[in-house]
Amino acid sequence: MMVVLLRVVLVVLAVLSAPAGRASAQPAASPDLADRVGGREDLTFADLVRLVAPRIAASGEAARLRHIGGEEWRSAGPEAAELRAFTAVPARSGGSDRMVLLLDFGEARDSAAGFAVLALFDIAGEPRLLDAADVAFDRRTSFAGPVRLPVGEAGDLLVTRSTHFNSSQGYAMTALILLGGDRFELVDTISTLDDRACAFKRTQRLDIRRGTAAPFADIRATVTERTAGTAEPCDDGAAVPEPGTRTIAVTYRWDAAERRYIADSDAFAVLARENETRF
To answer: What whole-number distance in Å separates Cα of residue 102 and Cα of residue 162?
Structure first.
């Protein structure tokens, strides 16, 4: 056990995260582990990671870490407890400043998905780990635009996306995760699929925006699907979809009685089933 923990700490302290992407559009950063957190001279990102890494390395602890999607998604933990990359996002919960890290531990031990831990920290005084959950729904998981949306008294909304690709299809599962009461709660997952064949190319792009309602803002998510023909010859006999554009939109509204966001339709569930027939 101690050997494994020591290995984790040494790997963690040696890892540098990947370069930040689209920094101008997203409030997420990919700092070095040695960088200071929140302007504090006495706290680094390595200090925060040390609060999480032993839980992942300890025997059985990773298996007990909840998955944000529920029991059917939970894995036995990563193949190797080695931190590969991390991303940081400042956030607010219940009117307090918090720090959120998305930690990539690579592949899960018992599934084709990855193992990505979303961790919430109180950094006002002595740093504390407040909540952690596996948010990997596929092989690679990262924050996705807009990353963080302030939605009022309910807290911040965080957006992650899990993906994998093959030669003709790209799969994505976007998770809308509410940060309220110092705990992560799943609002919904949205499945999108890009696919192409010899005669067409089809893309699905997701846009997430905050509404104007108060004190809890609506969340509006829209998938725009575009299908275009190609000039390539196609003689496989498969049906070719008509070129065109369609939109699938869902609005999530805060339900005061349920204390959660509720979708105004099942349109994304219908889209997910439709996409499954194209796999």
So the answer is: 12
Number of folded domains in the chain?
Answer: 1
Residue 100 and residue 271: Cα distance in Å, rounded?
30
- Locate tokens 């890494």: which residue? 53
| CA 89 vs CA 30, 72, 97, 156, 198: distances in Å | 9, 28, 11, 11, 41
Residue type, position 250, single letter: V
Top-confidence residue, 110 or 18: 110
Tell me if 30 sits within 8 A of 98, measured CB to CB.
Answer: no
Q: What is the DSSP string of 49-111?
A: HHHHHHHHHSTTHHHHSPBTT-GGG--S-BSS----EEEEEEEEETTEEEEEEEEEEEEBSSS
Q: Residue 153 sits in which domain range?
A: 2-17+26-276
Helix (H, G, I), strand (E, B) or coil at 213: coil
Which amino acid would we find at residue 53? Answer: A
pLDDT digits (tens, 9 = 90+) for 186-237: 999 999 999 988 889 999 999 999 998 778 899 999 999 999 988 777 766 6
Q: Alpha-carbon distance 279 to 225, whole Å?
A: 16
β-sheet bridge partners, residue 190: 174
pTM of the model: 0.87
One-letter amino acid of 18: A
Cβ(66)–Cβ(136) under 8 Å? no
* Eight-class DSSP state of 151: -
Question: pLDDT for 27-70, tens place per residue?
Answer: 689 999 999 998 889 999 999 999 987 777 655 556 578 999 99
- Whole-angstrom Cα distance, residue 162 to residue 155? 23
